[in-house]
Specification:
3 domains; mainly alpha; 13 helices
Length: 276
């Protein structure tokens, strides 16, 4: 239990903290009020002189009567109106209404006491703590982003595997193997397994999502969700990229050979199932 002396010290400490906070707020309010010092006399002088010019132009416009002077009269009126819309005139008018000049004219001095006032109102150790929080807040997402996905080396390996699989299938096909035999070849199976492993690491859950999508696609008439539509789009893009590789100068597949390729047939079938 707290003794009478301890309780008294605690109350005094709380009062001192409240006193310091109040002093800091007062300092901030005073600094805010004194942040801008305007030259009201200069603003008044400018507005008076401009008003004289505006009235003179308006008088000239009124004197230009008749149809023949319509153009000149319009020009004078526009000139008078333009004088009342300049940043200087607007600021002068605002200052005379005890408002802050939004364009920065007729200002004697500009202070920036806000930061100092806030620092005075806060305990001395708060800026350092805020800086630490800010730093940690920046570093953590950055580290998380770096940890996500695959490394540049793995990205290079993934792209290389895609090409190696195509080349190997071409060799096996030229050796007389059927599509089913090619897909069961040990080297093809190993490369595909590694490729899927990297794909899963790059985009966790993508393989399972593809399997689920294939299963769901068997239900005809079901409306595709946004996620399913995205998977369809990704597969369409993958098919097109694969088609271009096969037809390119490296492999030179004919249209018939592309359509007969086992992987192409599998992807086309999956796409058709997704769209059912």
């Amino acid at each position: 239990m707290e003794s009478a002396e301890q309780e008294e010290e605690r109350v005094k400490g709380g009062a001192e903290v409240a006193k310091q906070a109040a002093a800091g707020l007062a300092l901030f309010a005073a600094a805010e009020a004194e942040a801008i010092e305007v030259d009201k006399d200069a603003a008044q002088k400018f507005k008076d002189e401009t008003d004289v010019k505006i009235k003179a132009l308006e008088a000239e416009a009124e004197a230009l009567t008749g149809k023949d002077n319509k153009k000149a009269r319009t020009e004078k009126s526009k000139e008078a109106s333009a004088l009342s819309k300049t940043p200087e005139y607007i600021d002068a008018t605002r200052i005379l209404k005890d408002q802050e000049p939004k364009n920065g004219n007729f200002v004697k001095s500009k202070a920036a006491p806000k930061a100092a006032a806030k620092a005075a109102a806060a305990p001395a150790d708060e800026p350092a703590a805020a800086a630490d929080d800010k730093k940690s807040g920046k570093d953590k997402p950055k580290k998380a982003a770096q940890a996500a996905g695959i490394s540049p080396a793995e990205r290079k390996e993934l792209e290389s595997l895609k090409d190696d699989i195509i080349k190997k299938k071409k060799e096996l096909k030229e050796g007389g193997m059927s599509g089913g035999q090619i897909n069961k070849d040990e080297s093809i199976v190993a490369m595909v397994a590694r490729m899927n492993e990297l794909k899963e690491k790059e985009n966790p859950g993508c393989l399972e999502a593809a399997k689920s999508e294939k299963k769901e696609s068997g239900k005809k008439g079901k409306k595709l969700s946004a996620e399913q539509e995205a998977l369809v789009g990704n597969l369409e893009q993958e098919i097109e990229e694969y088609r271009q590789k096969l037809a390119g100068p490296e492999f030179k597949y004919s249209k018939k050979e592309i359509n007969a390729d086992p992987d192409m047939q599998d992807m086309v079938k999956r796409l058709a199932d997704m769209k059912k």
